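Hey team,

Filing this mostly as a record. A colleague (T.K.) asked me to run one chain through the structure pipeline before their review meeting, and I want the input and output archived in the tracker in case anyone asks later how it was produced. No errors, nothing strange. Just documentation.

Input sequence:
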Amino acid sequence: MPDGERTEQATPRRKEEVRKRGQVAQSLELLSAITFIAGIMIIGSLIHTIYNQITNLLTRYLGDMNMFSLTVQSSRKIMQDLIYQFFIVLLPILGIVFIVSLLVGFVQTGFLFSSGPITPELSRINPLAGLKRIFSKRSLVELLKAIIKIGILGFLGYSFVQGMRGEIFSLWKVSISGISQFIISNILRFSQQAGIFLLTLGLLDYLFQRRELEASIRMTREELKEELKETEGDPLIRSRIKQRQRELATRRMMQEVRKANVIITNPTEYAVALKYEPKSMRAPIVVAKGVRLMAERIKSEGRRWNIPIIVNPPLAQLLYKFIEIGKEVPPKLYQAVAEVLAYVYRRRRV
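Output structure:
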């Protein structure tokens, strides 16, 4: 597979970089749908109050038109009063819708402030780049979404009106107040149905936006290698560091061999050095261990410091495989180790 293909999932570092640039998965369809539903719910709960306020307002100025003369000053006062009253009516609706839109945006993107989307770029005013954006896959998808949305909303509206055709034709028998209530209640009913559809579309669009973002920030193998070099260093340098660490660990281990009481061997494969001080230790501990060449080095260091070397293949294998350096011998091996130490102590006394 060529290195130039974006086949690798984006790393956490790459995701954080694109997030800082303002590239996050967010759906305007979901935002508008939830905002629309919130607005309809607020209007539905306040509809009677709004209706009464508007009725009183119209009655005040239209009903009493003959009681005052229409001048420039009175017209200005009427206009100011109308604007103020409509503002009072719309303020709670706009305020709650604004708060809901902020919450929806926060849920989609989290707390994010980035100047990337508004930073001037020459590519944004390039005609060729503009044409590419117009005829891009994303633009075609957005166009398709708009067509589907308009088509389904049109079908829902047509079906809704067809379902209440009989009621519409009988409105001539109803008062103006009844007609207005009929219209308002049915507009709210249809808005609820449309809101459910828009919410479904918004959720699907959000999933699509997340998938598109994940696909757009995929990385090539070369980019992944470069990031690993930047975050963890060059592989060659890392291998040298690990080699140096192993050398230092081996050197420290060899220094501990001189403090050992005994070295237990296989005799050729394994070597394990044990240290035991009855007054300060609960049990013997492994101070060094190795296999093959390392085992030979441990035995050579032991001979240099006159450490007894005991051949006990089963015990050497158990100690090497199951006990780490610096750890105590487990109780199940106490007896076997005690026999070895007792033999070493007897030899020293002789």
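Quick notes for T.K.: Residues 24-216 form one domain. The CA atoms of residues 150 and 156 lie 10 Å apart.
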